[in-house]
Design brief:
The chain is an alpha/beta fold. Helices cover about 25% and strands about 10% of the residues. The strands form 3 sheets. It has a 6-stranded mixed sheet with strand order 1-10-11-9-8-7. β3, α2 and β4 form a beta-alpha-beta unit. The longest helix has 17 residues. The chain is globular and about 50 Å long. It starts with about 100 loop residues before the first strand and ends with a strand.
């Protein structure tokens, strides 16, 4: 079930309620009537294009797990009172369409991709760009993230950067649903400094959950016009897995870091975004324009404007069905690159392979690697860790 603030130990379940469709995500974007979905946050300060920028010494390593919270802290977590649910407010349908096109394939991470050994010597700056890695949605699962980074040789046994001049991009959604979102942010901030010292980098994109957490902290219960009535960031954050332990540990340094994250980047012919939506096109015709516009919106600190940004970057599935490859091509034509790499929509949802709502069958979805679809133009990286799937860390380009 959806994890709200103040609950006990977090248990991953194959739940559809975690991905219920709020009414604010039901408005088609850019002419693509794609099913709505989830949420995401984080960017500000115009001109700052380094998503991974951090201040060494100002953050903690991120290995400390939060203490338990008390049942008395439970918030009802409803964006709307039971008696005032807007018409059309429905959970995500269980039987999402399964893609059966020949160009759709789930790619296992190639064993030939030879990650940098975890036993690498003390990092020294190296010349030239190193291998490129991307990380899907983490959602507070710090232990799973550490294990996946170690498996790829990106960190050592102590959780320190061990990949020299490698390049690592996180696709956003660090918090909510899982037990230690702030620990995840602390880890990414620290790795950013360590990677830079070694001649590589660790950077991150803004996801809709970063936007949501920023909004919940800044605006709390301030009413906003959701397009389907009045809502609040606080209620939406709780509805979508906000954890009280994360809010209690959230500091200004975390908010500043999230607010400066970029929304779109291009690396080695890969257009990296968080959400599988064309809504980015509403914020600029170039990558620089989009990132500057998002940063300016967060800097202006207007609740309704921030909500509209959050709402649009919460949309999903624009690349999945008929016309999906056309939607991808729109973004590639505007921003460059040969393929889109995104998170946001879990692979089990894109494939229609979701477990039972209460997990009574005892099994989770099978995710072996990224999902390639839309005539081979899109790569989905959210392995569904929140539904007992897999937290994906892979090297690009994919081997097929």
């Amino acid at each position: 079930m959806t994890q709200g603030a103040g609950q006990g130990p977090v248990v991953r379940t194959a739940t559809l309620r975690d991905f219920r469709v709020p009414p604010y995500a039901q408005v088609p974007v850019q002419g693509h009537a794609s099913p709505p979905g989830d949420l995401h946050p984080g960017s500000a300060h115009p001109g700052n294009t380094h998503a991974g920028a951090a201040h060494p010494g100002s953050v903690h390593p991120g290995e400390v797990r939060p203490s338990g919270v008390h049942p008395g802290d439970v918030h009802p977590g409803n964006a709307f009172p039971e008696s005032e649910v807007p018409e059309g407010y429905t959970p995500t349908e269980r039987d999402l369409p399964v893609i059966n096109r020949g160009d759709t394939v789930q790619v296992s991470v190639s064993p030939d991709a030879a990650p940098v050994p975890a036993t690498a010597p003390a990092p020294t700056p190296e010349s030239g760009p190193g291998p490129l890695y991307v990380v899907g949605d983490v959602h507070g699962y710090l232990d799973e993230l550490l294990a996946a980074l170690r498996d790829q040789g990106l960190i050592d046994a102590e959780g320190r950067w061990a990949a020299g001049n490698a390049r690592l991009w996180f696709l956003g959604d660090f918090t909510d649903r899982g037990p230690d979102g702030i620990g995840v942010i602390d880890l990414v901030m620290r790795l950013s400094a360590e990677a830079a010292a070694a001649g590589g980098y660790c950077k991150a994109l803004m996801g809709n959950h970063e936007l949501l957490l920023i909004g919940a902290k800044r605006f709390a219960d301030t009413p906003v016009n959701s397009g389907a009535g009045t809502a609040t960031f606080q209620a939406a954050w709780l509805l979508n897995g906000g954890q009280k332990s994360d809010m209690d540990r959230l500091q200004d340094v975390h908010l500043q870091w999230m607010s400066r994250l970029d929304a779109v980047v291009e690396e080695d012919g890969h257009l990296l975004v968080h959400s599988d939506t064309t809504a980015y096109l509403e914020y600029g015709s170039t990558i620089e324009d989009v990132n500057d516009t998002v940063h300016e919106i967060l800097t202006r600190n207007d609740a309704d404007e921030c909500w509209d940004l959050f709402r649009k970057l919460t949309k999903r599935f624009a690349f999945r069905d008929d016309g999906g490859s056309t939607a991808v091509q729109e973004l590639l034509a505007a921003y460059g690159g040969r393929r889109i790499v995104h998170g946001h929509s879990p692979i089990p949802y894109l494939l229609g392979e979701v477990g039972s709502e209460d997990g009574e069958d005892g099994t989770g979805p099978t995710v072996e690697g990224p999902h390639v679809y839309a005539d081979g133009l899109a790569i989905a990286m959210d392995g569904g860790v929140t539904m007992a799937g897999k937290l994906l860390v892979v090297q690009l380009p994919l081997s097929r």
